């Protein structure tokens, strides 16, 4: 029987009332919540309400999550839905010309921009979660190879004390391990098309 992933173990402990687990979840995912809220350009009071509502809903639902490894995605989606709910309420208070074509086009562009930004936020979070589960060797190697511009294999060999011939195969194995981590697997398993995520992504960006 395989052991639970770090995220699943954290969720399980929090669901059982472990305060330290709750504290770690809040510390780890507050930047994600803040990022999603920021992308929606909410007013400070509304942003505070969304943040509070998100954590209250997690308290209610954490014991019912069918896929604990997907917690980052659940947090992002729930925060996004709360932001959109607040924005819909705000829109009802503003009068506008329903026949204005420019307003409709602007709204569509904003929606597209928000979706793209949210996808980027989710990708970065998944990469951070997956990267944290790799071995030290993989972390060091991928960090070196994903700098911009990337160093030559000779430089990497000297700095990491690795044979030049082993760098390429080791890199492939490390990327495969990264792809199989729960966070990346959940991200790639989303119905949204995400071609070339690992190839194009820069860790930590």
Automatic annotation (TrEMBL):
Gene Ontology biological process terms in this record: DNA-templated transcription initiation
Domain RNA polymerase sigma-70 region intervals: 26-93
Name used for this protein in its record: RNA polymerase sigma factor, sigma-70 family
InterPro entries: RNA_pol_sigma-70-like, RNA_pol_sigma-70_dom, RNA_pol_sigma70_r2, RNA_pol_sigma_r2, RNA_pol_sigma_r3/r4-like, WH-like_DNA-bd_sf
One of the record's GO molecular function terms: sigma factor activity
Similarity comment text for this entry: Belongs to the sigma-70 factor family. ECF subfamily.
Organism of provenance: Lentzea albida
NCBIfam families assigned: sigma70-ECF
Keywords from the named record: DNA-binding, Sigma factor, Transcription, Transcription regulation
């Amino acid at each position: 029987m395989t052991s639970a992933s770090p995220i699943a173990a954290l969720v399980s402990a929090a669901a059982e009332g472990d305060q330290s687990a709750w504290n770690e979840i809040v510390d780890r995912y507050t930047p994600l919540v803040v990022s999603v809220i920021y992308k929606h350009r909410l007013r400070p009071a509304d942003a505070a309400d969304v943040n509070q509502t998100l954590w209250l809903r997690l308290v209610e639902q954490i014991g019912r999550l069918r896929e604990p490894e997907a917690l980052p995605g659940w947090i992002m989606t729930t925060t996004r839905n709360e932001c959109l709910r607040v924005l819909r309420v705000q829109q009802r208070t503003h009068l506008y010309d329903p026949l204005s074509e420019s307003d409709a086009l602007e709204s569509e562009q904003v929606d597209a921009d928000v979706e793209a930004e949210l996808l980027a936020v989710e990708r970065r979070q998944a990469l951070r979660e997956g990267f944290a589960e790799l071995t030290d060797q993989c972390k060091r190697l991928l960090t070196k190879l994903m700098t911009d511009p990337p160093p030559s294999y000779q430089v990497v060999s000297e700095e990491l004390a690795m044979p030049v011939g082993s760098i390429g195969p080791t890199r492939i194995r490390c990327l495969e391990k990264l792809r199989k981590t729960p966070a990346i697997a959940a991200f790639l398993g989303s119905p949204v098309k995400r071609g070339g995520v690992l190839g194009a992504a820069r860790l930590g960006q």
